[in-house]
Design brief:
disordered N terminus; 33% helix; Protein Transport Mog1p, Chain A; 9-stranded antiparallel β-sheet
Length: 356
């Protein structure tokens, strides 16, 4: 009988756990009146569950785990898919991979785009893909509230990729920036420079983008290498390669290596490349304030020094005199005293006295 009751309790507990679902790790239980639907949370660490076609790309961006959940408010529903990465650069790279030029920019999180009822944005190291049943005037505010409740990475994991700052903004086609961290993503976006010429063993940071020109669109490949020497060696390899999709125009600035190709006149290509300039971060030594002149303190210190020197002289004199007195008593006639008269040798330097 006891065994039967135990089995019934286990079944009930399993049923309750299945109804409640898994607890979210980084998605909030509620925000702006939206409540988490019971049993809707799913978690895992397999990127193929999020994207079966491009799970290799997610791995390159440092994918760690995911959560999916459904939220409801006043009979409306919101589906959320969230992928977490090792750092902000990985989340930004995945965001740039999935964003398309047809999407509209939004002010949500650290970057966002939307396409009707689908909103894609990232906050820190978390990328979210949100689907709404109906978009309202408060939808953006709701998602900003969701973004603010997400945990953020600290330290170096919160820094964006530095190569992004060097991408020219003039004539840039919106939502065409692609941050690349591996050869799989590079091949999927159809980059003009192949992976063997970029050489991922050198640790490059890569940005791709499209630009409007007077004759069409042109592509830019911007790569930041660890040192200028590596960039120089890669530039020679790029220039000697027979690349399709030309003509190509190249420029190196420090560790930055840029290539422009496509429907672009040479003058416009040179103008675009001239905008790529590497600025080294130089830390200025902080100038220390001059010490204040303390004349009173100087006089006090000088007087103190004189007193100390005089005191030491008196002590040394007393010690020397006391030593001689003790030595005279213990070792008489040993040279510590002079009882005999001491002869003084004198020289008569006067000349002879002349008489009469």
């Amino acid at each position: 009988m006891k065994k039967r009751i135990t089995n019934i309790l286990l079944v009930l507990l399993c049923s309750i756990a299945g109804a409640l679902g898994a607890e979210p790790k980084f998605l909030p239980p509620s925000f702006n009146g939206w409540q988490l639907s019971p049993g809707s949370v799913k978690t895992g660490s397999d990127p193929a569950v999020i994207d079966a076609a491009d799970f290799g790309v997610l791995k390159e961006y440092g994918f760690t785990d995911f959560e999916t959940a459904a939220y409801t408010r006043n009979g409306r529903k919101m589906d959320v898919k969230a992928a977490r990465f090792e750092n902000l650069s990985g989340a930004y790279g995945a965001f740039s991979f999935y964003a398309h030029p047809q999407m509209q920019p939004e002010k949500i999180g650290d970057g966002a785009v939307s396409n009707n009822s689908r909103i894609l944005f990232y906050r820190g190291n978390i990328l979210l893909d949100v689907s709404l049943e109906r978009v309202t005037a408060m939808s953006a505010a709701d998602l900003r509230a969701l973004a603010d409740m997400l945990p953020r990475p600290g330290g170096r994991n919160s820094a964006p990729p530095s190569v992004k700052q060097n991408l020219p903004e003039q004539s840039l086609v919106a939502n065409t920036e692609r941050y690349i961290m591996g050869p799989v993503a590079l091949g999927r976006v159809g980059a003009a420079i192949p992976a063997n010429l970029i050489d991922f063993s050198k640790g490059p940071d890569i940005m791709l983008a499209q630009y409007r020109t007077s004759t069409g669109e042109a592509g830019m490949t911007l790569v930041e290498y660890p040192t200028p020497q590596i960039a120089t060696e890669r530039l020679r390899a790029w220039q000697s390669a027979n690349l399709p999709g030309g003509p190509f125009y190249f420029r190196r600035s420090g560790p930055l290596l840029a290539a422009v190709n496509g429907n672009i006149p040479q003058s416009e290509a040179e103008s675009l490349l001239a905008s790529v300039n590497y600025d080294a971060d130089v830390t200025m030594t902080q100038q220390r304030p001059k010490p204040r002149e303390d004349r009173y303190g100087f006089i006090v210190a000088l007087i103190s020094l004189c007193v100390i020197v005089l005191g030491l002289a008196v002590l040394i004199g007393l010690a020397f005199g006391g030593f001689r007195l003790v030595a005279r008593k213990i070792f008489p006639n040993r040279g510590f005293d002079h009882k005999e008269e001491v002869e003084i040798i004198s020289l008569n330097l006067r000349g002879p006295t002349l008489k009469g």
